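Whiteboard transcription, Tuesday session. T.W. wrote the structure tokens on the left side:
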């Protein structure tokens, strides 16, 4: 039986970068968030998903996608609820928005989806 690992270098580049971004995003969210469960739960899902991806688990990929999409959805729902335009979100926190979109794009990239479909258990 193979020992568990935190990072897998044999994954495609899209999943490698996504794994690193998931860990980084989860760590920064846990360190600098006010402690709201709506914010901490996706961060924990991202960390667990990254660990699952590193160990070639299908549940890890699904958890990572849900953990990455949820904050982006919250950002967009929050904008719609408070009547904030998408342009104000882009200009108020562009780096956060860029990382969230990049993470979702890396996870849903055709190469990532195909790899997890074939090789993940």
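and on the right, the sequence the group agreed on:
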């Amino acid at each position: 039986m193979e020992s568990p690992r935190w990072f897998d270098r044999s994954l495609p580049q899209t999943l490698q970068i996504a794994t690193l971004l998931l860990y980084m995003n989860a760590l920064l969210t846990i360190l600098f968030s006010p402690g709201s469960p709506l914010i901490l739960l996706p961060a924990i899902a991202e960390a667990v998903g990254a660990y699952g991806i590193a160990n070639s688990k299908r549940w890890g990929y699904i958890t990572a996608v849900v953990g990455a999409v949820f904050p982006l959805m919250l950002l967009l729902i929050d904008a719609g609820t408070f009547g904030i335009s998408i342009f104000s979100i882009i200009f108020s926190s562009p780096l956060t928005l860029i990382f969230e979109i990049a993470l979702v794009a890396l996870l849903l990239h055709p190469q990532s989806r195909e790899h997890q479909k074939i090789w993940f258990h």
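Someone added at the bottom: The longest helix spans residues 58-81.
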